[in-house]
What we know:
The protein is of the alpha+beta class. It has helices spanning 14-23, 27-66, 80-86, 89-120, 126-134, 141-151, 160-172, 217-221, 321-346, 350-358, 363-391, 395-400, 412-421, 428-457; strands at 189-192, 195-198, 207-212, 236-242, 266-271, 274-280, 286-289, 298-301.
Amino acid sequence: MAERPELTETGTAGPAGAGAAETGSGPSAERGRAGAGRWLPSGFLAPALVLLGLLVAYPILFTIWRSLFDAGGDTFVGLDNYVAMFTDSQTFTALKNNLIWVLVAPALVTSLGLIFAVLTERVRWATAFRLVVFMPMAISMVAAGVIFTLVYDRAPERGLLNAVVVGVHDVFADPSPFPGARPRDTGPLATRAGAYETRQQARPGQTVTLPLVAITPQRQRELAPARSAQARPGALTGTVWADFTPGAQAKANQIDPTEKGLGGITVEAVSGGRVAATATTAADGTFTFTGLADGAYTVRLPAGNFAQPYNGVNWLGPSLVTPAIIASYVWMWAGFAMVLIGAGLAAIPRDALEAARVDGATEWQVFRRVTMPLLAPVLMVVMVTLVINVLKIFDLIYIIAPGSSQEEANVLALQMYLRSFVGERGDQGLGSAIAVVLLLLVLPAMMFNIRRFRREQG
């Protein structure tokens, strides 16, 4: 029969107690495991903290230090770069434009996102609508800048927006028949206030000739041959024609067989500074004034016959360049706002909406009194995020704004780049000072977002 193990003073078997002591299950072992548990997360976070320090903390501290030195980085100048920045007219323009961006762009994007989000809840093809609105977010800022450079092109044959504007304009205003046409310096016509009129007056029964040049060969090929007007008793007649034949000899101020008549031109008979009669030239360039009282008349071709065609709006000119670029930004970011606001709408309790409708509230009252208050936190997050984004806007302006209008469209991020790296006299001290100011402008919005996230998590 096996012997039982002897019990120790603590009531534990000798061999078993020895095993427990060897495994170290006492209070000191528990403290060791707790210490290891505290250090373990720090070990995992250490690489991320090192990268954060190298990529964020060090550049910020170095930029602040660099802003206190001159352009070459050799001489300590203190706050001189900040003084120069706030006394520079270009930097002041950049600050003004940044203020316009902050006040206009986030409000427009959030408003459009709210409208789109509400609409997508009420249409059957909501998925397709969301896809179309959100698709610009998949395009980079540089690509969007190239797209809108073409959209805003001044030439209607290339610029989409001006093609639409010119098309609408030409529906309500007839284009001039022969833009740019003019008389010869030695011809029978003189220029006065943009119009062309005869140097000598004529009387009923006589014939006048009105030769013009600067008609393009392509346009001349579309015209009918010119014909000399015949004198008629009691009527003043004449011919308006293109006094030039490409590649052929022609006599000036004389209708040659190869020359073309200018049809559709408005002609006026003027007496005493007043228009006595108006006529329109036929396809062969001839015209006739009938019913004129006896007297001397000046024959005039109004300036509207030769006005240059309407070429639309200079969207990227100094006065419109900033609104035009803001419009391209809104096109890109409206989908972002729509998705976030749509998620907020989906999270609103339907019971609250139905209760308001049961109480007799209209849809507008439900939206204003119930939906908007419940959606306010989401709208605020979208607004603050967009404010941070527009404070750093750079690439859209750099790509879209032409050189002639870049100063008028300038913002702080672009001014920082231009001052630091562009030109032979790049001043990285001043550029660093602009970067520090831009960081100080962004920090309040970032802190607001962080505090809001912490309140929501708490």
